[in-house]
Amino acid sequence: xxxxxxxxxxxxxxxxxxxxxxxxxxxxxxxxxxxxxxxxxxxxxxxxxxxxxxxxxxxxxxxxxxxxxxxxxxxxxxxxxxxxxxxxxxxxxxxxxxxxxxxxxxxxxxxxxxxxxxxxxxxxxxxxxxxxxxxxxxxxxxxxxxxxxxxxxxxxxxxxxxxxxxxxxxxxxxxxxxxxxxxxxxxxxxxxxxxxxxxxxxxxxxxxxxxxxxxxxxxxxxxxxxxxxxxxxxxxxxxxxxxx
Length: 244
Description:
Helices cover 70% and strands 0% of the residues. By secondary structure, it is mainly alpha-helical. The chain has one domain (18-243). The radius of gyration is 19 Å and the shape is globular.
């Protein structure tokens, strides 16, 4: 189901399967010209190129944003399939996660390529796979929760873009965490996306250290999100056919 959903994107277009690679390359070029050349913010972060650091953070965050926004319609848009399903309904929200992860991997490949061309990746790159796995579990838990709630709360899909936008600005993506005022740091740090973006970006670009404690926190978040989301989905899925 994940493959079918992902391959359906841009079907019939001239470049079709090339768009997932073309899009991040174009976006990185735009960010470099806008923030690295025109606004001359290359030295805002002392560790790496600002445009690349911001693009890396956005690539990571977009996996979550795409997962959540797509999950809101994953069940309601396939009401007939849900009512007649002869398979586990958990497959449907997980397919949206898989689709978002595939798209995100293309962005991360562009980030890694740009980092290598610009001077090399971090020595802590080995930390990226386990952190990315924890992030997938976190997104899966959110997909279970959002897809289930959207069946019963029809206004939720309209609200989610606003919530993801708020989370975006509360995550150190377009600004480094070091410039956040001390009194606002607890708010930024409470955002679970901050832990994933900062730790994964650090493992790629070397922007700040990823201590064992910082490695553990994303795993706790990922596991807790998955277990809670799955439990809620399993408890409520029996009522889906009646509502849809």
